[in-house]
Amino acid sequence: QVQLVESGGGLVQPGGSLRLSCAASGFTFSNIIMRWYRQGPGKERELVAHISSTGRFTNYADSVKGRFTISRDNAKNTVYLQMNNLKSDDTAVYYCKAVFRTGYWGQGTQVTVSS
Question: Using CA atoms, how far apart are residues 80 and 6, in angstroms rounded to an integer?
Answer without folding.
Answer: 9
